[in-house]
Amino acid sequence: MRTLLVGFGVVGVALLGWGLRVGTVHAAPDEAATPQFYATRVQPILKEHCYRCHGGMNHRGGLNLATRAGMMKGGHDGPVVVAGDPAKSLLVRLIRHEGPANDPMPMPPKLPEISGADIATVTRWVKAGAIMPDDVPRR
Ligand code: HEC
User: Among residues 10, 84, 97, 125, which is most buried (max CB within 10 A)?
Assistant: First the structure.
């Protein structure tokens, strides 16, 4: 009897594992890989923390984050976003304080600091392909 129960237990665990795998396979496509994610989650963060120096009339470091063209062109040091690769994206490295330490310096350079949750959102967006609407509306 005991062996039988253990047997059922193993089958149960196996079935559970299979069920979880099937669940992942059928999961919805990553919402971070949509232009809506940029418009509703990422752009508000950039607007709040970056546009005053990288939008409108101000293109500090040669970088305008307020338009798609500006985002793609990057700044004095070249492209700042490498789609799918946060570790190679200067924008992500600077907000995560992963260097370079001085030139250019960590962003934003002054308070208020960008929150951990916001950093995670921007990182997730770059990792998912940095997809944005064609016409990022100007501020
Ligand atoms: C108070 C003004 C200010 C704010 C706010 C600010 N930046 Fe900057 N940013 C600068 C300046 C100045 C530079 C040029 C620094 C340098 O070259 O050493 C720069 C440079 C950069 C660069 C490097 C461009 C290049 O090619 O060298 C990136 C990427 C960047 N900023 C991203 C951001 C992001 C993302 C935010 C918002 C989280 C932000 N910045 C907020 C002033 C600002």
Answer: 125
Residue of the nearest CA to atom 24 in ligand 1? Answer: 75
CA 36 to ligand 1 center in whole angstroms? 25
Q: State pLDDT tens for residues 37-76.
A: 999 999 999 999 999 999 999 999 999 999 999 999 999 9
Number of Cβ atoms within 10 Å of the Cβ of 74: 20
Contacts (Cβ under 8 Å, ≥6 apart) of 30: 128
Written as six digits, the tokens of 12 are 């149960």
> Using one digit for the tens of pLDDT, what is the confidence trace for 18-37?
545 555 555 667 999 999 99
- End-to-end Cα separation, the chain, in angstroms: 71
Q: Is there a contact between 39 and 133 (Cβ–Cβ < 8 Å)?
A: yes
> Of the candidates 77, 47, 4, 10, which has an alpha carbon nearest to the alpha carbon of residue 137?
47
Residue 94: Cβ within 10 Å count: 19
Q: Select from 97, 77, 91 the least CA-distant residue to 122.
A: 91
Q: What percent of the chain has pLDDT over 70?
A: 76
> Is 90 a pocket residue for ligand 1 (Cβ < 6 Å)?
yes
